[in-house]
Amino acid sequence: MNTPTGLQDRVIIVTGGTGRLGQAVTQLLLQRGAQVVVTYTKDAEFERLEKALSTQEREHLSAHQVDVSDEKQVAGFVGDVMEKFKRIDGLANLVGGWDSTPVVELTLEAWNKQLDMNLKSAFLMSRAVLPHMIAAKYGRIMGVGAQSAIQAAKNQTHYNVSKVGVMWLMETMSNEVKQHGVTANAILPSAIKTKAENEKDPGGAWAMPEEIAPMIAYLMSPESRATSGAKIPVYGKA
């Protein structure tokens, strides 16, 4: 895959931009010249991201403390981004979580938490940015499905279902908006390795955030125009 060259000054929202995958994606987008707007919930996570960035990279980073599963907060956040930048070129829906509980022990609270984090957040954010992208006749949206969305793993029904939802949310949106120059795609990772895990098992089965980030950067770029509605495996060797 060629390195995307069209990210210079593109305004890209990265929800969950302070998480393990989010930090890798945010840093790569900044290195490629994008204006990146991240959402976060905990101050410590944002401080960790800032420390990982150069002074020049921090100049092109904006951050908002937002619960992206809350409709009113999402509307206010997207409004603020539009007021500042006058456009939104890309949305990387990276907020999410995982839980392992057998169905017989699964509470409604745990079920709702997974769907809120993984699916509701992607729906609310995508719906909020789409009118602006359609008006601009350009936009890039992606979401994070999972390998278990197509190969169901036991003891995580609520997680699996939420990731199936993300996968089909992206494809459905693609079919609705591709005529407006807007693409929507899903990546399907397995588990994502930490640096410590990679040191113990270099070249092991799972992919690292830094190995997945270039695919997301590509999906945020103008060069990905012909790719929409895709479900892209990023399993590593899993």
- Helix vs. strand class: alpha/beta
The overall strand count is 7
Could you please say which CATH topology applies here?
A: Rossmann fold
Uncertain parts: none
* Radius of gyration, in angstroms, nearest whole number: 17 Å
CA-based shape:
globular
How many domain units? 1
Number of H/I helices: 8
Named CATH architecture: 3-Layer(aba) Sandwich
Q: How would you sum up the major sheet? A: 7 strands, parallel
Distance between the termini: 21 Å
- The percentage of residues in β strands lies in 15-25%
Query: Quick one: CATH class?
Result: Alpha Beta
Specify the helix fraction band: 40-55%
Mean pLDDT: 92
Q: Spell out the CATH superfamily.
A: NAD(P)-binding Rossmann-like Domain
Query: Which series of helices and strands comes N to C?
Result: EHEHHEHEHEHEHHE
